[in-house]
Fold this protein.
Amino acid sequence: TFEPLASDFYAYESLLSEREREALAELRAWLEADVRPVIDDYWERAEFPMQLVEPLAGTGAMSFAWDETAPFENSAVFRGFVALELARVDASISTFVGVQSGLATGSLAVAGSPEQRREWIPKLASGELIGAFGLTEPLSGSDSARGLRTTARREGDEWVLNGEKRWIGNATFSDITIIWAKDVADGQVKGFIVPTDTPGYSASKIEGKISLRAVQNADIVLEDVRVPERLRLQRADSFRATASVLRLTRAEVAWSAVGVAIGAYEAALAYAKTRDQFGKPIASHQLVQDLLVKCLGNITASLGMVVRVSEMLDRGEQRDEHSALAKSYATARMRETVAWAREAMGGNGIVLEHGAARFFADAEALYSYEGTREMNTLIVGRAITGSAAFV
Ligand code: FAD
């Protein structure tokens, strides 16, 4: 049965249908039973728990968004709560899903032909295939709309890809990677479904991360990688298609940021009730309550924002600047929140076992990926002033 989260202070979950609440309850139960007990260990060893992919797919978390695979009709607010729920237990798992279901499947949904959608989306939703999304490059991050150096050259019925990608999530074990490259003929960005066993494609793990250690990122090298025309995303003729994918996934990252903030806040609240100092629980000291209430204020404000941005998506009203503002605002509030939660736990706040430290570290990656706070700010700045500061 569904128990509302106490940290959803204004009860936004009441917007969900009965069926949506049931699905969320099932997901929450699975995360508590199978993910929370093991995830710190994977995080510490910088390993992804591959055995969780199949049961994760079984929860429907990678299927809900797409007509081809949705088990029941559902809202964008519900899918946001799914991202929140995943991130509330672990941001690496929510990032894995964000890449698999958001960036990779989203590229096929937004820019694939009907045949490409039918062929690939069910396999990604079931976890039969793992997907990745390769946009960022060693020399092109924030400026990837115009700065891409990876090239695509058409030769008859094939395309030849050359270049390098950096930071690509899931790409150490992905079966297909969506590669975004510039067509040398017309200078436009196009997308390609690249099976990772294609000759000339190689991926290597990025070592030494202090954030999102359980989910893996890769550097990719493409050397004369040949893909047939039928693997080019048929409806991606310019960076506009890539931007459409990012508009959707940025809103999801904003939801994940709320989940990360809640994860840290819940750990701090539980700790503060049991830790005694000066003869009473620290939760009864005024300044500790102040930290906890500031956390809840951030969470509640961000939750209101992401709920609204998802409602706008369902109504066909969501624009790039709407999801950009939610992403930059919610991740900035998340970063404050995890720091306050950690602070409320004193020294134990920096130890994995006490539950806030992993969220504290993972927040840094969410803050910068899918467009840094600065770039998302400039997208909003362009919308409100009519003047683009980043071209
Ligand atoms: P840079 O672009 O070099 O920016 C450095 C700093 O300069 C930032 O603070 C930035 O805001 C600032 N800056 C840059 N330009 C301006 C400007 N015009 N005005 C003001 N400030 C500016 N990419 C993928 O394609 N696929 C993935 O799956 C993926 N997963 C990721 C996972 C993780 C954990 C991380 C850390 C990154 C991932 N990325 C992925 C890449 C991510 O999207 C980029 O890191 C991000 O877009 C920023 O690019 P950059 O790191 O190259 O920073």
About this structure: Strands lie at 131-134, 151-155, 158-169, 176-183, 189-195, 201-205, 217-228, 276-277, 280-281.
